[in-house]
Design a protein that fits this description.
about 400 residues; Elongation Factor Tu (Ef-tu), domain 3; Rossmann fold; binds flavin-adenine dinucleotide
Length: about 400
Amino acid sequence: MIVLGTKKDLLDRTPQVISTAVAANLCAAVVMRQELVINFLFFLFGQCPQSFPLRFRRLAAKIYHLGGVHSGAAIAGTVWFGIYNVSIARLRDQDVGQDFRIVLVVFTIVLDALLLGICISSHPALRAKYHNWFECIHRFAGWLAIALFWVHIILLTLASRRGMSPMPSVGQLLVKSPPFWLVVVITVSLALPWLRLRKVRVEAEPLSSHAIRLHFDYANTPLCAAPRFSDNPLKEWHAFAGIPETNGKKGFSVLVSRAGDWTSKMIENPPTRLWTKGMLTRGVLHVAPIFKRLVLVCTGSGIGPMLALTAGNNLNCRILWSTPSPEKTFGKNVMDTLHRVDPGAVIINTTLVGRQDLLEPAYTQFKQMDAEAIFIISNPKVTRKLVYGLEARGVPTFAPIFDS
Ligand SMILES: Cc1cc2nc3c(=O)[nH]c(=O)nc-3n(C[C@H](O)[C@H](O)[C@H](O)COP(=O)(O)OP(=O)(O)OC[C@H]3O[C@@H](n4cnc5c(N)ncnc54)[C@H](O)[C@@H]3O)c2cc1C
């Protein structure tokens, strides 16, 4: 963009040319959220041998920042779409025909609104505050935008046939058009998880008025992968860390703690069936075993992802868990698993001692363990504070803010 801009011909490009840049960026954004791609990347980086230099493994564990590629590419695509606006505005009736031109202009304006709506509603502050809106806008505006891109591509292809002799078929032109293939990839990426939409059986294990454990037997979980569940597929989806069942049983369970309307509904009216789609998607903790010794810091239901990591694995780790009345809230099974995977786990019962500063205990455990890294699953406030404090002390810290 900078090169074209300095040559001053950025704004002289045809819609056909600019649409390639738009589609390439949006394709990168969508593909980065595709479960197959995410699973492949986490699998690949999770293969990093422990014998590799620590500096290298620290970099490999940063793979969970791939969400940044998604948002970066989406914003770049939106900026390119701004330039596409110029190319559409400069079209003349004789270029594409009056009817096509009007449709292209109107759909471009609608696309402006859709892309801006998606970008604005994805701002972390808005996303956290209006999560259901964020999800709906992302889903429906995204789908509508792709449908309108298809219209643009077809119309521009039809228009580009004008004056060609002999006139090629639309198909012949489309197969040679990069935007066409890019939008095919986008469409397939978006459709794939929905092709695996199904209802699955749930066995609910009520734990307390704050938490419930849901057991599933429709699939086994890869290490630290998250299934998504919904009771209203078009409205909202929720991801949880899949904890493998032990004792040779098939399936996995998820811990769900009261964090909003949907989780409250699950706790108060335990489901017998839920919708799921796509496949279980690996997350940040999948790469944790590339470190020889770990400290795992969590609050409340953050113990779920930590058990997903440790339950079926023989890891050299120390768990630091700050939570109210652990056994009363999360039940005996969770406590038994926790003590089995880390007999020396440090549990801060906030009902008894209040919310303690977790920075010092986390750093102390890191030093005592001579650990190579700290992973954190907590609420955004604690996560940010710990990441800041620990990284300032040179501790490799890995801590996602969002659970999906
Ligand atoms: C990658 C990822 C995966 C996740 N997976 C799941 C999942 O599988 N299931 C699920 O239910 N949630 C999951 N979450 C959400 C996550 O568990 C919660 O955001 C986090 O644990 C906060 O816990 P909470 O919601 O119970 O509430 P919080 O308000 O954070 O409080 C929970 C308890 O933590 C302690 N606590 C909170 N703040 C402090 C503090 N400042 N100092 C000391 N102690 C404190 C207190 O005991 C408090 O009662 C996930 C989040 C991420 C980022």
